Amino acid sequence: MKRELVKDWMSKEVAVVKNDSYLPEAHQIMISKNVRRLPVVGKNGRLTGIITLGDVRSVTPSPASSVSIFERNYLLSNLEVERVMTPNPTTISPNQTINEAANMMLKERISGLPVVDGDGRICGIITESDIF
User: Does the pLDDT value for residue 78 go beyond 60?
Assistant: First the structure.
């Protein structure tokens, strides 16, 4: 039986955002690339976190709040990704199996894993859509 590896199933073209970028930039990347999660990298290019569309939504004030649209836009435009992201996300190696990836996602209750090389640099991403 052939072992199916993450590197053969992952998306290799990965949109990322830097940890010192601002939230609207991350949100715009998600919209333009049609993705729900972005790996976050530091100045050294290594993975530092992950930000999801749910994270962005969780910090956006409700339209029913007393915050004006101008205040809301100002606050969000000054919020760095690093303050909203999940630090040190669960990752997987490109040489691990699809079975391991699926089990990690089920165990951690997450829908995607950044794929990192031995230096902690992003080389892909694998999501439940890729597997299932």
Answer: yes
